Amino acid sequence: MTLFQLGYVAMSKILENASPSQTMTYSRFRTLSDEEAAIHRLEVIARSNLHNTLRLLKHNEAHDIKFFRMSSRLIPLATHEGLRGWRYITALKNDLKAIGDYAKAHDMRVDFHPDHFVVINTREKEVFQRAMGVLKYHFLLLHAMGIDPTHRCVLHLGGRYQDREQALENFIENWALVPSSLQKMIILENDDKSFTLEDCLYVCEKLNIPLVFDLHHHLANHKDEKWTNHWSRVLGTWKASPLPAKMHISSPKSDKMFKSHADFVDPLMFMKFIEFVNGTVPQLDCMIEAKEKDQALFRLAEDLSMRADIEMKSIASFIWVDK
């Protein structure tokens, strides 16, 4: 029997004035004549983002939500080349530590999903170095929070570059150039355009990287439509991880906009997945990627709780009881 744990992404549709992604453009930064005052302004915005992240964790705890993806935009302009001398970790260490302390005290799993421009399989040195800078930023945030960075950052395989097979080999070749501290942080996800579940398994099994299975992406982009044929291999990539296996769940917005995420998750689509994977692993963490964020989680949990074959263990976790 498997315990299924639900989580959601970055922001709440319920909490007011709690954005963790407030920002400042570099153009705006440069209009401020006093650089010290400009950096102070960045730190004020960052502190607000971190404060709101802690509010979100407290909101989650109040609703028994133990799985959460933090925003990658917590510290505005942290990776911009024009601010390389900014010691943002030092300035914000107490705020970062407070987030980590709370997450650990309440046994929460938190992670990140850096933007799509973090491309490891690129042949362009500048693009690769920018990707390393963004990954280092995430590593430093986790380290300052006191959270083990192992398997906390979800990435896609990267660009297809008109040659899918060569693009896969580029990832494998470039992997040796990724610092080991950052390698340990990375997990890969199948995407809806370029790289299928099988592509990701090929890379993950070669490099010992856990694979996050995205069901919606698989339905939009696959070789073998039957993902069930590969589920045991997916779980195999998690054998050496200190964390439970995880997957992503979302529903198509419509037939015409199949790749876009709907506001909520179709419970019947999710149940087909649940019924197959139940019992294959002790715990599976399911990240909801729906437009309505925590509202989508609560709606899905309510839909599931009305089923005779579901036993809710908390507001955001359940087991499937075959009746």
Please explain how this structure is put together:
With 323 residues, this protein is of the alpha/beta class. The chain has helices spanning 26-31, 35-62, 88-105, 125-145, 164-175, 180-183, 197-207, 215-220, 231-236, 267-277, 293-305; strands at residues 3-9, 67-69, 109-111, 153-155, 186-189, 211-214, 245-249, 283-288, 310-314, 317-320. Strands 1, 2, 3, 4, 5, 6, 7, 8, 9 and 10 form a ten-stranded mixed β-sheet that branches. Strand 7, helix 10 (267-277) and strand 8 (283-288) form a beta-alpha-beta unit. Helix 2 (35-62) runs parallel beside helix 3 (88-105), helix 3 (88-105) crosses helix 4 (125-145) and helix 5 (164-175) packs parallel to helix 7 (197-207). It is globular and about 65 Å long. The model has no long low-confidence stretch (mean pLDDT 96).
Distance between the termini: 13 Å
Major β-sheet annotation:
10 strands, mixed
Structural class, from secondary structure content? alpha/beta
| Radius of gyration from the alpha-carbon trace, in angstroms | 20 Å
Number of helices: 11
Fill in the keyword field for this structure:
42% helix; 11 helices; single chain; globular; alpha/beta; ten-stranded mixed beta sheet; 10 strands; 323 residues
Topology:
Blueprint: E1 3-9, H1 26-31, H2 35-62, E2 67-69, H3 88-105, E3 109-111, H4 125-145, E4 153-155, H5 164-175, H6 180-183, E5 186-189, H7 197-207, E6 211-214, H8 215-220, H9 231-236, E7 245-249, H10 267-277, E8 283-288, H11 293-305, E9 310-314, E10 317-320
Parallel strand pairs: 1-2, 1-8, 2-3, 4-5, 5-6, 6-7, 7-8
Antiparallel strand pairs: 1-10, 9-10
Helix pairs in contact: 2-3, 3-4, 5-7
